[in-house]
TrEMBL record:
Binding, ATP: 9-11, 17-18, 145-147, 185, 194-198
Identification of the protein by name: Tryptophan--tRNA ligase
Function: Catalyzes the attachment of tryptophan to tRNA(Trp).
Subunit structure: Homodimer.
Keyword Protein biosynthesis: yes
Keywords, comma-separated and alphabetical: Aminoacyl-tRNA synthetase, ATP-binding, Cytoplasm, Ligase, Nucleotide-binding, Protein biosynthesis
Entry annotated with the keyword Nucleotide-binding: yes
Motif segment ('KMSKS' region): 194-198
Chemical reaction(s) catalysed: tRNA(Trp) + L-tryptophan + ATP = L-tryptophyl-tRNA(Trp) + AMP + diphosphate + H(+)
Binding site for L-tryptophan: 133
Similarity remark: Belongs to the class-I aminoacyl-tRNA synthetase family.
Superkingdom of the organism of origin: Bacteria
Molecular-function GO terms, alphabetical: tryptophan-tRNA ligase activity
Gene: trpS
Length: 331
């Protein structure tokens, strides 16, 4: 059975993009993989997180993943900082990765913008920690949204250079599992920007804890053009907001975009948004309700994460110890 690793940053409440790009896939991959799912709190602090918020978001995310269908009794769910192997391997990778490789990372450029000098060095070496997350478990498959593709290519470069430098086939190559539908869900306020849990505007995203009223309001206010839904997919090409709403509908209703257009062509956004609201509420609202219930028992959640960390540690520790020996550290 192949091992899967994937992670999510507890830097806010997960949104619909996280769900469609990653979480939904994680749930179905559990059937035939050994899965390790990680709340990457060390990644989260590469940009400032108020400590109490980080703690609250980490617990909320644990609850959301369980409410979405992650089975912590059969698979592993834990927070990254609880397993020190991640930090140790990340340091080795800081010394393997070339600066030129990091300079090409588009996500750093997007996040840092023109103000590079004022960002943390953690944000810059973030992809090395991400490679360490995966390779500490020698995981071979990584389900992510499209925005993480470049980071996974870098993880493969790092694994290859490590193997080459130390003369052993130690780390495997990893395969990105990117969904075919809604691999990049866009903001409800701007169809050219990715939907993100850290966007300053809460109206730009549907959070997995939003109730039916909040979902309806956000979809009603979502930016659109003044046209109607076209008959053909090609006609959505330069209508980013319309394309995004149709893609969300298609992904949640398990249809392709053309099938959605066949059903709704000629409709204005008023009726289409009402239909979309029904589809989103049906998928998301039960997750929010179950999350609230799970958050009522914090001790239980902490216990699940603690046990997950112990099981994660049992896999990662021997792998990272071996990597340290290969490097020449006295053990
Ligand atoms: P994060 O927390 O930004 O997002 C978690 C997952 O959700 C996906 N995603 C999206 N998919 C589609 N449309 C969107 N708008 C959207 N926004 C987010 C992301 O692609 C991701 O799969 N660096 C990672 C976390 C990480 C990780 C790892 C992932 C750390 N170590 C090791 C895989 C393996 C991140 O910031 O995800």
């Amino acid at each position: 059975m192949q091992r899967i690793f994937s992670g999510i940053q507890p830097s806010g409440v997960p949104q619909l993009g996280n769900y469609l790009g990653a979480i939904r896939n994680w749930v179905s991959l559990q059937a035939d993989h050994e899965c390790v799912f990680c709340l990457v709190d060390m990644h989260a602090i590469t940009t400032w997180q108020a400590p109490e918020e980080l703690r609250r978001h980490t617990l909320t995310q644990a609850a959301i993943l369980l409410a979405s269908g992650i089975d912590a009794s059969r698979h592993i769910l834990f927070n990254q900082s609880a397993v020190s192997a991640h930090a140790r391997l990340a340091w080795i990778f800081n010394c393997v990765t070339r600066l030129g490789w990091l300079n090409r990372m588009t996500q750093f450029k997007d996040k840092a913008g023109k103000d590079r000098e004022n960002h943390s060095s953690g944000l810059y070496v973030y992809p090395n920690l991400m490679a360490a997350d995966i390779l500490a478990y020698k995981a071979t498959r990584v389900p992510v949204g499209e925005d993480q593709k470049q980071h996974l290519e870098l993880a493969n470069d790092i694994a290859q250079k490590f193997n080459h430098d130390y003369g052993v086939e130690f780390f495997p190559q990893v395969e990105a599992l990117i969904p075919t539908a809604a691999a990049r869900v866009m903001s409800l306020r701007d169809g050219t920007k990715k939907m993100s849990k850290s966007d300053p505007s809460a109206q730009s995203r549907i959070e997995l804890t939003d109730d039916a009223d909040a979902i309806a309001l956000k979809i009603r206010r979502a930016k659109t053009d003044t046209g109607v839904l076209p008959a053909d997919v090609e006609e959505l090409a330069d209508r980013p907001e319309a394309r995004n709403l149709v893609a969300i509908y298609a992904a949640l209703a398990d249809m392709n975009v053309q099938q959605v257009l066949d059903q709704h062509q000629g409709q204005g956004f008023g009726p289409f948004k009402a239909a979309l609201t029904d589809v989103v509420v049906q998928a998301i609202a039960p997750i929010g309700a179950e999350t609230t219930r799970l958050l009522g028992d914090e001790a239980h959640l902490l216990n699940i994460l603690r046990q997950g960390a112990q099981r994660a540690q049992a896999i990662a520790e021997p792998i990272v110890s071996e990597a340290e020996k290969l490097v020449g550290f006295l053990k």
